[in-house]
Write the structure tokens for this entry.
Amino acid sequence: MTTMHRCPAPLAWMFAATLGLAGAAGAQDIAKPGMYGDEDRDWNVAPTTEVRTADYHAPTPREIPGGRVVTTYELSRMLAREPRPYLIDVLGGGAHRTPIGAFWMVGAGAGDLGKEEVDRFLRALANFAAGDRNRAMVFLCVDAECWLSYNAALRAIAAGYTNVMWYRGGVAAWRRAGLVMQMSEPFAWND
């Protein structure tokens, strides 16, 4: 049976959930500088401020307007310090391995969300941010050929969040770097 998270957990839970990065697992689990998978590959795709509504599995841009792209190394360093950013996994499909501490918001990166779904997504972000528009949030999906996290990050940026990061390498780069992962559990944001 899968447990559905109903609201953002207290920060203490988030810190405890990610201790595997800085605590018991030790510094050897922090990715070393370098690129993993295709996280820095350039397919000459122009950045856009429009969400993609089809063909989500395709090469992505190397930049995101209004946000910041983070590498595996940068993200692993951020997760080893406090305050940690909220990790928001928007990969569709079934349960999968994801970076430890990530909230899995199934479907949140779809480009064809209706107004009510977008409103629920933004309410979930507001709960994560606790009123702080500068609260660090990192969006991710499977890899550098996945537009779902790009879409979700664009929505957060358009809503006025100022510390939005896109982890372009996603689950594939995190796994390739050998970093700590957990099985995803759906976070109920859209009901």
